Amino acid sequence: MIDFLYGPLITAGLAAGLALVIVVLDAIVNNYGDVKIDINEGQRSYTVRGGANLLGTMAAEGVFVPSACGGRGSCGACKVRVLSDVGPHLPTELPYLSAEEVTQNVRLACQIKLKKDIAIELAEELFSVKKFQSTVSSIKTITHDIKEAVFRLDNPGEIEFMAGQYVQLVVPPYGTFKESVQRAYSMSSKPGDRQAVELLIRLVPGGIATTWVHQFLKEGDRVELVGPFGEFHVRDTTAAMVCVAGGSGMAPFKSMFYDILQNSSYPEKEIWYFFGARSGRDMFYLDELRQLETLLPRFHFVPALSEPSSDDKWTGETGLITDVLERFLKERIGTAKGLEGYLCGSPGMINACTTVMTRNGINLEKIYYDKFA
Amino acid sequence: MSSAINPVILFFASIFTSNILLSNFLGTCSFISISKDWKSSFGLGMAVTFVLTITAAISWLVLTYVVIPLDIEYLSFIIFIIVVAAVVQILEMIIDRASPALYMSLGIFLPLITVNCAILGAILFMQIRQYNFIQTVFFATGSGIGWWLAILLLAAIRERIEKNPVPAGLKGAGITMITIGFMAMAFIGFSGMIAVQ
User: Fold this and answer.
1) What is the ipTM metric for this complex?
2) All residues at 6 or more sequence positions from A17 whose CB lies less than 8 Å from its CB, including other chains
3) Boundaries of every domain in chain B
4) Bridging pattern class, strands A222-229 and A166-171
5) Residue B1: pLDDT band with limits 50, 70, 90
6) What pLDDT does B63 receive?
């Protein structure tokens, strides 16, 4: 009568047997014992368990190499120079490395499996990257899909950063997601306010981190942040800044402009800020930025809507932000004084703006952005 | 109906006259996606040949000594899938530890192969055609080499196509599908010389 169970049971038994073989082999073959990580030729060294990747192992030791994707090999941010031999570059690394980086043996920390002792070189400032325990002190709805969240820092209680840098928000496991992930967000708070970090987070449909922030995060929740990271900051030159942002790309610019206002730094700098949105319901901080225009004499704010609805009563620029940018570059700004491009937004927007900027006389090396993949 | 075909003939037939890719269209997804450059194609082809030979041999043993005696042939599909997945996992671990150089050229493709239908296809042919052990090994190795040959040919053709103007709508997968069609027709020219049963 139980004959029908016979086949499935044997199949299950076979699968269990093979799984057992894999587990046993994993314990024997994948056991690399303890390995030593040497950073900057003896400056620091750690003895850790081998077998896992370099990025995660170092993070467990408190050394945080920037990574926007959290180790999936899709952002190319976690570059480190490896001084010892760890084998040739993997095909998963090569798309993110220049020819020069390849010859210097620059690697992606998330793709290197620790099998033996390793010596690496790290930028000094990465040691100042810390993991912060924080408490959510407020969450405000800014537009229909953007929230402004403020995290009060508990331990360590202060953060030192440059306006434009980003932090990684540690999203704990929730709902059906069983693993903690990290996502990068630019800080919109001023460097002067060291006790708190403000982030602008736009809901991405299906996004693990953004869904968590929009639907689960409450005031009073404890959250971990890692940072600061990034090379996106105001350059100390006399060239005019041409800034372009869309959506939550507002964040680093808010930090930069208020920092400039507060410290009266870079008095020479002329600033053009282009902010693109689809319709009135996607536009925000209009009053604040208009007020900033009166406070900073060389600051020009150009908001643009690509599809204004009739309810918006929009009197500003209309059209795609790239078209508005091109028109201003050609007719209003002029390239005589030297220009620098600052971009924050989706990879598509960054690529499109880079094309427009290079076409209008802004040198590719003078266009700055942090690309989060 | 035990097949009496000579293993050596079977070996060459599975490379040329009944190429698993170009006459049975098995394993086409990785065939199209990886054939952009010659070097990756070479590694993938080698990995397919390697895994196909080993998994087919192990599957034959499982079929002959477990599945048939216990009369659970109706579950053989699932059992083959489990065997292929487990063997690929085990191979990947061992290669990673034993030979980093081999892992670089072949190991990174192994996870791709777990879901390659050429592997399962060849194993099912082995079952349906009731090959003995020697025939299975020759057939599987031949099929793997046939797949390897096909992807190398395609990679070489695609590298040439890259340098030539292709109508915008046909770029990428489109022209590749057409190319594969021509290649399949060329290989069909060989069929009829030997009928693999």
Assistant:
1) 0.77
2) none
3) 15-188
4) antiparallel
5) very low
6) 92
Length of chain B: 197
Token couple for A135: 């408490």
> Under a CB-based contact definition with an 8 Å cutoff, are residues A148 and A69 in contact?
no
Give the whole-angstrom CA distance, residue B19 versus residue B11.
Answer: 10
Best residue of A24, A28, A29, A94 to probe chain B, by most B CBs closer than 10 Å? A29
Question: What is the length of chain A?
Answer: 373
Query: In the numeric block, which tokens belong to residue A303?
Result: 């908001």
Question: Is A26 within 8 Å of chain B by CB?
Answer: yes
Q: Taking the CA atoms of chain A, what radius of gyration do you get in angstroms?
A: 24
The closest alpha carbon to B79, from A303, A283, A15, A233, belongs to A15
Q: What pTM was estimated for this model as a whole?
A: 0.57
Residues forming beta bridges with residue A147, ordered by sequence position? A141, A201
Could you tell me if A94 and B110 are in contact, meaning their C-beta atoms sit under 8 angstroms apart? no
Q: Are A18 and B83 in contact (CB under 8 A)?
A: yes
Q: Is A2 helix (H, G, I), strand (E, B) or coil?
A: coil
* Chain B interface disruption, residue of A11, A20, A21, most B CBs within 10 A: A11
> Which has the closest alpha carbon to A245: A324, A171, A298, A173?
A324
In the CATH scheme, what is the code of domain A129-229? 2.40.30.10
Domain A240-368 has CATH 3.40.50.80: yes
C-alpha dist (Å) from residue A38 to A47, A56, A59, A66, A256: 9, 16, 14, 18, 36
User: Among all residues of chain A, which has the CA nearest to that of B82?
Assistant: A15
